[in-house]
């Protein structure tokens, strides 16, 4: 059991040991590293609970059949549009989007639409766009959108096309087991 924990958290353990060694060598850098890590943890702890509540509600309230109809394999442009819309109105940092993936997989959402959703979360968030317009101007924002929107859609199709079918099936079955 301990061996499994060590294997599972090896990256964290290696990082912790590295920071401890750095702290021994240079206390100021080590303390600053721990402060940054604590700040990041606090931010994550404040963002994830509301996301988990929304996920639970989405899992219970939205029937699988509806998600499959509007964002599933036969959803076409409507599924892409919904994925972009949901990703664009989302709030929070990118890591807050990752818990949505298993729920979307369980609901039968087409994998390319999941990738589109994730990319839209990163690139087209309304809060970011409003800041961008005020800081860089609407011309820049419009040009970026004209480049990014097709890129988001192409990325979704490309990832689905490159992903082996057996790995996609395994991904969907693992999500069902969760």
TrEMBL record:
Kinase keyword on record: no
A cellular-component GO term for this protein: plasma membrane
Topology relative to the membrane: Multi-pass membrane protein
Alphabetical UniProt keywords: Cell membrane, Membrane, Transmembrane, Transmembrane helix
TM spans (from-to): 6-25, 46-64, 76-101, 113-136, 142-163
InterPro entries named among the record's database cross-references: DUF318
Localization per record: Cell membrane
Source domain of life: Bacteria
Family recorded in the similarity comment: Belongs to the UPF0718 family.
Protein name: Putative permease
Organism of this sequence: Clostridium colicanis DSM 13634
